Amino acid sequence: MLTFTCPYCGVVAEESELTGGGEAHLKRFGPGSSDAEFEAYLFTRKNPKGVHFERWRHAYGCGKWFLAARDTNTLEVFGTYPAQTTEPPADLIAAIKNKRPGWEGWK
Amino acid sequence: MSEAMSALKGETHVGFATVAEAGLTGMVTIRADLSDPALAAALAPLGLTVPALRQVTAAGGRSLGWMSPDELLLVCGYDEAPALAATLATALADSHALVVNVSDMRARFTVSGAKAREVMMKLCPLDFATLPEMEMRRTRAAQVAVALWRSGADEVSLVCFRSVATYVMGLLEVSSRRGGEIF
Amino acid sequence: MSTRLAKGGRLLDRSKPLNFTFNGTPLRGFQGDTLASALLGSGRTLLGRSFKYHRPRGLVASGVEEPNVLVNLGRNARLEPDQRATTTELFEGAEASSQNHWPSLDFDIGEINDKIGKLFPAGFYYKTFMAPKWAWKHLFEPVIRQAAGLGAAPKEADPDRYEQTYAFCDVLVAGGGVAGLAAALAEAKAGKRVMVMEQTAFWGGRAPVDGGIIDGLAPDEWVRNAIETLEKMENVQLFTRTMVSGLYNHGYVIGYQRVADHTPGDGRPRHRLWRIRAGLVITATGALERPLAFAGNDVPGVMLASAVRDYVVNWAVSPGDRVVIVTNNDDAYRTALAVLDAGLSVPVVIDARDSVTGALPMAVKARGVRVLEGRGIAKVLGRKAVTGVEICAQAGEGGVIETVACDCVAMSGGWSPVVHLFSHVGGKLIWDEAGAMFRPDATRPPIKADGTALARAVGAANGALTLDALCAEAGLAAQVEPEAPLAPVWVMPAGAKEALKFKAFLDYQNDVKVSDVQLAAREGYTSVEHTKRYTTLGMASDQGKLSNINGLAILSDALGQAIPQTGTTTFRPPYTPISFGAVAAEAKGEIFQPLRRTPMHGWHEAKGAHWEPVGLWRRPYCYPRAGESHRDAVNREITNTRTNVGLLDASTLGKIVVKGPDAGRFLDMLYTGMMSTLPVGKCRYGIMCNENGFLMDDGVVVRLSEDSWLCHTTSGGAEHIHAWMEDWLQCEWWDWKVYTANLTEQYAQVAVVGPKARMVLEKLGGMDVSKEALPFMSLAEGTLGGFPARVFRISFSGELSYEIAVPANMGLAFWEALNAAGAEFGAMPYGTEALHVMRAEKGFIMIGDETDGTVIPQDLNLGWAISKKKDDYLGKRAQARVEMARPDRWRLVGLETIDGTVLPDGVYAVAEGHNANGQRNTQGRVTSTYWSPTLKKGIAMGLVVNGPERMGEVLDFPGDGGVVHKVKIVDPCFYDKEGEKANV
């Protein structure tokens, strides 16, 4: 059972106190977008074996959504950060590159 | 206001710790920017200060707990809650804030006794040994959400939604039965 | 024959005799006995029958690895099957019985399987029961089920209590032997919060039996000192009878405490499951001795060498007068010494190694014992008990050199570190050639959330199998006889022929033999995981603790590859079986799951409501009166509501307040309709879609003030919709100024419905509820009958209707006041089924009936609830996809059978032709169907291809038993189409 540190309330919460929300940093496409854009937004997910950015909600805690960088293979968590951002923090990206030199980046 | 009844009307069980539904309790949810000076100003007449991360402040028999980065829970007398909510809402009228009396939507419990902690250890995935007094924690008790804080050296207070009060009392009762002491 | 020795027994308290029974026979043991030692001490060696061949079996081991002696323990509600005798502490009055035989343990008909065992090779089931196909269900499976299984399942509810508890520590030490205690001392002295869990009732592990000197002290004394020191430390918690059953991700560990197994019925919980978060897990889980594979190695009396000395030293039990030792290593000679010290005899030590020169063998030789080098056992003599062994050259094919009479064989094939915990979440193992064992690879441990090591193995669990190696690792001084290397011997003799291998058991519990594994290899099973499943090696409740390494060594040999190339099967928790009770813990009976109660729940219950689960809520389905069927009650409630007045507990409806400068804009995105333009004090029906365009929830939205709205959701939808709102506010539009609060449980809500609804409210008094003051689809706040109330003029039934919200703590009083005030007008409560029928009569859709996650609002003719003026709302883009705009989508219509009967639920309308699978094409389906007491006929709603354009058309809906229902497409609104009744 995984644990994450909620960046809002500082609590190390276990998975049973959280709900997962899938891939992070999706860009919403609404009316006017092309079929390809909309399809990518709705259905296409990276699903990597390795570094993954994902959404978690501290559902049984402060109720806030946060984002996490996690290795889907080793389950190592590189860091968590608030959801109000369109891209991961630079220091987190640097830390991941340091640990996973072969990583191709988050985009 | 007459005829109000708490979810379990003060039901109490005595095992190796005492578990009790605390009866009618006033509660007011405040959602606001916690750094907004208007919030501090609105609370000042109550003698209450805005609690820091996860803290509970108290004054004049009322307490104010940190629920999330933009939410506080004022615990007060049941009868005074509607007026307090109205007063705070008025004081915060010019700010972006939501103040609402929620005194009826929860049940409050106390678990007391030297081994009160051992009752809670059976239900919540948190480290009671390192939980300071008057720190608000929102977590899970078995299958439902609760908020709790150590309201005294040998007492834990917790609140849950009203609809699951019977369930939570069931959890507390079975977890505090004699013979179930952990240490 | 086994017997109790007159002296000794380090764990026994002879002053406390205990009475117990085995298969009904009264026997005696002592405090400190296990059921196994007490049985053996009572002269019992035949203790069970094997699973497949029903061969006579006795004890092989003295601990958790015991494969054979699983017993039924207790009786009636406290009956528990498959309890290992070796880990069951004896208590006064214990009742045990053996399993898997008929009619008796001594004479078992099933033993015929052993005689015809050649017919049951590996994969027997797969090969035999493939054809004819019908026979599996009707012949093979029933027969197999009858024959299979070990113990009997209890038939009564378990009277015992179980619980779980959460715990947190820096270091969890699994195992209370010398290595574990040394590690605990070191970590505790460094100031860490330490928990130590030992699966048995005693500290010290093997060292007190195996001997040596630790830091100048005898092991027993060293252990006593260590425990005294640890007990005094505030940062240390010690647990005996607590097994660390599994390691999981991010430092999650499960401990299984058998609190009261040895004191049944004393009021304590029987088992407690510890759910621990540990910063580091030190696995000090020791090692397990391996059997040797020779013919007849399962005859009662053939035991692990370590078990023999455990029984002698710990429990003063002689497993036999004449104990033959067979080994490939020096350690087994300790058993010879222990047996000799107890005054028993060792006729011979059979050592597979060509040259035996170690200190321990020399000490045994010095006691006058014959030690044979380069020898093995060709065959054990005896069937229900060992009578002797035939000795052969280990290098040969089994030609008998001599026969030695004996009643016990102590075997040792070397030791395997217990690597389970280290491996559970990805810790890697390496093959240690010298020790012929897999041991943890410290450079590839399981990891925690931060990527650092979760586990560290110490002592025998780390491959430090001797006391000096263990102490060197722990920084202790040790004195112990040095041991010469073992010889990796897996089968005895090396060239054993089929007849011998056919009786050489690897997995005792599942009756898997050397010949089975070799057969699997010949048949092409090259993967160890496949071989395991084909032969069932390691698949019994002991999970191959004794058989694992031997089996994969033999598989490797058959495949002609090195052992590490074959690899191990995956180690999975739990280490040994844990009780279902501990897993379920408090979640049974009344608190099996949270049951959500409205403030009026108790009233409904007292009135005999028949319940309908709605999410975790219980809502009254109807209130049947004496002699009334549920359907009668529903019909009565509907008719009364339509003619007089009905009361519905609607407290479960979701109520979410949304407030802020951007709240209107936010709701315009959330709902398909326009909410920002709703006047204050007015209500509007709204529907919500997900980004796929599909309908997800609906309800009435009320504007409370300039910047706040109240959103009603479906019952059971409140949490989900609140989370959905917060998701968009937190993760997409975080710069919008909007706050939400889920106030569902703040209010008790009652629908007062029917032509006389207004009279009831007027009787209560306090508010003007006239048509003028409170028109349809509007809100008023005030005091009603003394209760602070919000009154909504909304209707889900087509009748004049008020929904009134009062503070939940006053909900019951308000409900009672309404019932009292309504009595003179014929008010009756009604339940959810009446609600459903009445909404269907009006053609109102129900989320979950008319929607199923693939339905868009346009399918339900809800275009009127979709704003054409908005650039965007959630789901709008998806509704523009080609599939959603297709002209032949299934759309909502009313359905009526030609003969007026009720259409069955879930039936489909057929169309011409067949699809690619040869099934009839379909053109529609029923989504809701009811008897309407108002219209005195069956009414239904459904989705039909182009439905609204096909009014009056008659479709065929095939039902059960060849019946075809003729159904006419009609308008979905069956009642008061003009809406005159609600708007009065």
From TrEMBL, chain A:
Pfam families: SoxD. It comes from the Bacteria. Gene3D superfamilies: Folate-binding superfamily (3.30.2270.10). GO terms for biological process: tetrahydrofolate metabolic process. GO terms for molecular function: sarcosine oxidase activity. This is Sarcosine oxidase subunit delta. The lineage of its organism: Bacteria, Pseudomonadati, Pseudomonadota, Alphaproteobacteria, Rhodobacterales.
TrEMBL record, chain B:
InterPro entries: SoxG, TrmE/GcvT-like. This is Sarcosine oxidase subunit gamma.
UniProtKB/TrEMBL annotation, chain C:
The keyword Cell division does not apply. Gene3D superfamilies: 2Fe-2S iron-sulphur cluster binding domain, sarcosine oxidase, alpha subunit, N-terminal domain, FAD/NAD(P)-binding domain, Probable tRNA modification gtpase trme, domain 1. It comes from Paenirhodobacter ferrireducens. One of its GO terms (molecular function) is sarcosine oxidase activity. It comes from the Bacteria. Residues 891-976 form the Aminomethyltransferase C-terminal domain. Keywords: Oxidoreductase. InterPro entries: 2Fe-2S-bd_N, FAD/NAD-bd_sf, FAD/NAD-binding_dom, GcvT/YgfZ/DmdA, GcvT/YgfZ_C, GcvT_C, GCVT_N, Sarcosine_oxidase_asu. Belongs to the GcvT family. Residues 503-586 form the SoxA A3 domain. Residues 600-870 form the GCVT N-terminal domain. PANTHER family: AMINOMETHYLTRANSFERASE, AMINOMETHYLTRANSFERASE, MITOCHONDRIAL. This is Sarcosine oxidase subunit alpha family protein. Residues 170-429 form the FAD/NAD(P)-binding domain. Pfam families: Fer2_4, GCV_T, GCV_T_C, Pyr_redox_2, SO_alpha_A3. GO terms for biological process: tetrahydrofolate metabolic process. The keyword Oxidoreductase applies.
